[in-house]
Specification:
By secondary structure, this protein is of the alpha/beta class. Helix content is 30%, strand content 20%. It contains eleven helices and 16 strands. The strands form three sheets. The chain has an eight-stranded mixed sheet. A five-stranded parallel sheet has the order 12-16-15-13-14. Strands 7-8-11 form a three-stranded antiparallel sheet, with no helix packed on it. The protein is globular.
Length: 320
């Protein structure tokens, strides 16, 4: 205990906190958000900051954290927000529940409307819970696939608070708790699996690649799997695909999006059996990074016969 006390006394102000969620007692600055309010922030790198915002509703103390790039005036405009960690305010394809003891649907309504002014449609939203392994979403995707949220943030004709309270209560009442006794964080209305994706069959690859020379081929296996890969040229590829493991895909999405907007082309995901690449294609389609495809059966079925060299090759193109 004496050692801990000594360390606490010598720690920098930014390392001290009484906040139950760990926010330092001394922030590094205050930024102005797109709705005109101010938020404390921590500097991460150069002009990249982590800003704290209050988003009560799922619980009274719910908050979010925005990672983005400050403007020269010290403001964090919604177009510059790269990631938004929103707790359970928004679920991927649903909303956080408000029927538990500390929930407040009135606050959630106002938090949702506020959040839509703080982030752009392209900002990546990362909820605390991800029961369907959908990884990430955006406000733009939620407006398309999350009907109740879409009505709340509608700029022209938003749902009234009274109607929201009624529909939110009905939605929470449909939550079926698992037999394990754990409580779900909310109701998922639309998962990425329901949205689907497109698959390429092994016999379609040669003709597809010959017609889509600017496609981006991404191997979503882990690095230790990727290094023991096959002879890519014999499989029909001029260069090896880029390796972005599914576990790291979310962090690369901003770069992929920017690359596609500049150059265009299709996203083609591949893995060992097609399961992980299918999940990557689901995510890409949900976020409208498409056309996005998964190679059915993965490398297990897509490997070409070395005895039959292929005339057409695909250049991966995108560089991490």
């Amino acid at each position: 205990n004496s050692l801990l006390a000594e360390l606490g006394e010598s720690a920098l102000p930014s390392a001290k906190t009484d906040d139950p969620l760990g926010w330092p007692t001394c922030s590094e600055g205050v930024t102005t958000l797109s709705d005109g309010t101010e938020a404390p922030f921590l500097a991460l790198a150069r002009d990249i900051v982590l800003a704290r915002v209050e988003l009560p509703g799922h619980t009274r103390g719910s908050r979010g954290y925005l990672i983005g790039r400050l403007e020269h005036q010290g403001t964090l405009e919604r177009k510059n927000v790269l990631f938004a960690f929103t707790g359970d305010t928004i679920l991927i394809g649903g909303l956080g529940r408000t029927d538990l003891m500390d929930g407040d649907p009135v606050s959630l309504y106002h938090s949702l409307r506020r959040l839509s002014t703080l982030v752009s449609d392209a900002s990546l939203i990362c909820p605390t819970h991800d029961d369907n392994n959908d990884f990430v979403t955006t406000m733009g995707a939620e407006k398309e696939w999350n009907p109740l949220l879409a009505r709340v943030v509608d700029l022209q004709n938003p749902i009234s608070l009274e109607e929201f309270l009624l529909l939110k209560a009905e939605l929470d009442a449909t939550i079926a708790e698992p037999s394990t006794g754990e409580r779900l964080s909310g109701k998922i209305v639309t998962s990425s699996a329901a949205i689907g994706f497109s698959e390429l069959r092994p016999h379609e690859l040669k003709s597809f690649f010959s017609e889509h020379r600017n496609a981006i081929l991404i191997d979503v296996r882990e690095p230790h799997e990727f290094v023991f890969s096959l002879d890519w040229h014999s499989a029909g590829f001029e260069t090896p695909p880029i390796n972005i493991p599914l576990t790291q895909l979310v962090g690369k999405l901003p770069e992929l999006k920017q690359y596609l907007e500049t150059r265009g082309g299709d996203l083609i995901f591949i893995c060992r059996s097609g399961k992980r690449s299918g999940k990557a294609a689901e995510i890409a389609r949900r976020l409208r990074l498409q056309p996005a495809f998964s190679i059915a059966g993965g490398l297990a079925l897509a490997t070409a016969d070395p005895g039959e060299p292929q005339e057409e090759c695909l250049d991966a193109g995108f560089v991490i």
